[in-house]
Specification:
The chain is mostly helical. The chain has six helices and no strands. It has one domain. It is globular and about 55 Å long.
Length: 190
């Protein structure tokens, strides 16, 4: 006979991961849409909310047995850290490594787009809001890859606005999960 009274209940880490992803995605895509410059605010958000908060959420998803959430939050958390590393360590600091040019960044973003497409397929068993987040993220990665391959500022701007919507959909999904849980009913539809 097991004693369940000693088991610690873990809160749903999904809203934290979605919030970290959403806020960071909005901020970076305000830059991609040419609304704000790339600044330390975006880098800091990428390290803290985009990276650390999502990785933390991913670890707790692993602990709760949620393979999808663990993979998504951990992978995208490390995406943000890898992006910050690309920005922080250009070739002039490490002479034997070439900087990431448009072609390299295109392939980098294309690989993330392909991964995200497969993760989107996994969301077909989830709620509609989660499907929107992953579908728009898939489109965002492909648009950003195309903009880097073609060196197109116009496509990057379009991607920026699409990315703002993607990030906002993640923030909405996060807030809806928190509010719905607090009220014990669907206040915000998912």
């Amino acid at each position: 006979m097991s004693d369940d009274t000693n088991q610690v209940k873990i809160a749903n880490p999904g809203p934290l991961g979605l919030l970290g992803f959403g806020m960071t995605t909005i901020l970076l895509n305000l830059h991609n849409a040419d609304i704000i410059p790339l600044s330390t605010a975006i880098v800091a958000m990428g390290i803290a909310m985009g990276g650390a908060a999502q990785i933390l959420a991913g670890i707790f998803e692993f602990k709760s047995g949620n393979t999808f959430g663990a993979t998504a939050f951990s992978a995208y958390g490390f995406f943000w850290w890898s992006l910050v590393i690309i920005w922080w360590f250009p070739a002039d600091r490490v002479s034997s490594i070439e900087p990431a040019d448009g072609n390299t960044m295109g392939f980098y973003l294309l690989l993330w787009g392909i991964f995200t497409l497969f993760m989107f397929i996994g969301t077909l068993k989830h709620n509609r809001a989660t499907q929107v987040v992953f579908l728009t993220l898939t489109v965002l990665f492909f648009l950003l890859a195309i903009s880097d391959f073609c060196e197109s500022a116009a496509i990057r701007t379009i991607a920026g606005y699409e990315g703002i919507f993607c990030g906002a959909s993640a923030v909405y999904t996060s807030v809806a999960n928190v509010v719905n849980n607090e009220f014990g009913r669907n206040v915000f539809p998912l």
